[in-house]
Design brief:
The structure is a single chain. The strands form two sheets. A six-stranded mixed sheet has the order 1-2-3-4-6-9, sandwiched between helices. A three-stranded mixed sheet has the order 5-7-8. By secondary structure, it is of the alpha/beta class. Helix content is about 50%, strand content about 15%. It is globular and about 60 Å long.
Length: about 260
């Protein structure tokens, strides 16, 4: 069976590319499982410091594959639950990856494509990119992707775009927080990604992983619990080898050992 994604690593940066251009990189079970395995592997790969999620062809991701949707029609309730968990695990593998993940968005990002964008830590797109939470038009709901979308754009914007299923462009996606940056062209988009990767690679790799974890865990947690958790986490990393090296390098006015 042909792989539906490709993974390429160079200079501590791994690029995971959706590779179903003829179908606008629509998601099906195989692609989601491949993406989950890829990001689970990258999370453990010490030679990788940053990951990029990109796509071949005209679109970033057009949502659910039609053939997959046809199979869903005949699924039982339990089969639908199992199926939805494949999507949830994929999105969590991206969001919870120990490495920062950057979405490179062009063309259409529809339904699950918005979920993919939201699951990434940062996202950049060209102005012509189009986004849509289209599920209600099909009589279904953006349930599995909703925690990722709400975390990124907030409940107010999520209510509007999930309930209207209207399309919105890259500048609007940037305004509401789905995108980190809008680049004038794909060339400028790649230049922004290269610059951002260089910036991220200058930071402590374990600190980046810890930063992702603490930001994910403190959101919505009661303040007393947050205080205890954050105090424990900062103490833990301060006494770690990387924390000690980073602090000493700063005080000694030199680059830390992980910096190029």
């Amino acid at each position: 069976m042909a792989k539906l994604i490709t993974v390429r690593a160079q200079r501590q940066v791994a690029t995971v590319t959706l590779n179903r251009p003829a179908l606008h990189n629509a998601l099906d079970e195989q692609m989601m499982i491949e993406l989950t395995h890829a990001f689970d592997h990258l999370a453990k790969e010490d030679s990788v410091r940053v990951a990029i999620l990109a796509a071949q062809g005209k679109s970033f991701c057009a949502g659910a594959d039609i053939s997959w949707m046809k199979r869903m029609v005949d699924y039982s309730f339990d089969q639908n639950v199992a199926d939805a968990n494949i999507l949830a695990r994929m999105l969590r593998s991206i969001r919870e990856c120990r490495k920062p993940v950057i979405a490179r968005v062009h063309g259409a990002a529809i339904g699950g494509g918005v979920g993919l964008t939201a699951a990434c830590d940062l996202a950049v797109a060209v102005p012509a990119a189009v986004f849509c939470l289209s599920e209600v038009k099909l009589g279904i709901i953006p349930a599995v992707i909703s925690p990722f979308v709400i975390e990124k754009i907030g409940p107010g914007h999520a209510r509007r775009y999930a309930l209207t299923a209207e399309r919105f462009d890259a500048p609007e996606a940037h305004r509401i927080g789905l995108l980190s940056h809008v680049a004038a062209s794909e060339v400028e988009m790649d230049a922004w990604i290269t610059s951002t990767c260089a910036t991220v690679r200058s930071n402590g790799p374990h600190a980046l992983a810890g930063c992702k974890q603490v930001l994910a865990h403190v959101w919505g947690v009661p303040w007393d619990q947050v205080q205890a958790e954050t105090a424990r986490r900062i103490a833990q990393i301060r006494v770690s080898p990387e924390g000690q090296e980073g602090l000493k390098a700063f005080l000694e006015k030199r680059k830390p050992g992980w910096a190029e």
